[in-house]
Specification:
3 helices; single chain; 5 strands; alpha/beta; five-stranded mixed β-sheet
């Protein structure tokens, strides 16, 4: 570093070095500020909270097995029903909490119309969780 000198020849020349003393002073001031404020930021209030050991009560939705055979006959949990009776039962099931799941099993020879009517009746009643159940294809087919 070049400091002021009494040399008359170099008085008009610009200084090529940076004066580091002010930068070091600023750094030390910032370090002191961080050292003082850091413990204030981590201050926490100790609270003794009560401990709950109860398990949450999760209700499993009821499952409805709905089947349609090749002749178009509908079955509610294995019991034969008409379309109107099934629609009434879907309306009653739609009011339950939680809304039950419907497992729909339709014969491959049954008319699509019967399946579509069943889906429409369930949807109108608010039963929206419907799963299609199928048998895996055998190797001999």
């Amino acid at each position: 570093m070049a400091f002021a000198s009494f040399n008359a020849q170099r008085t008009a020349a610009p200084v090529g070095e940076i004066n580091m003393v002010p930068l070091i002073d600023v750094m030390l001031v910032l370090l002191v500020i961080f050292i003082v404020t850091a413990p204030l930021l981590t201050h926490a209030v100790k609270i003794d909270l009560p401990q709950a050991s109860a398990q949450p009560n999760v209700l499993q939705p009821e499952k409805i097995d709905f089947a349609i055979d090749a002749a178009g006959q509908r079955f509610w949990n294995g019991e034969p029903v008409t379309r109107e009776d099934a629609a009434q039962r879907f309306a009653a099931a739609g009011r339950l909490q939680p809304v039950p799941e419907v497992h729909l099993r339709a014969d491959e020879a049954s008319a699509y119309r019967a399946v579509a009517e069943t889906l429409a009746d369930a949807s109108r009643a608010g039963v929206t969780r419907i799963g299609f159940v199928s048998q895996p294809e055998t190797a001999g087919r």
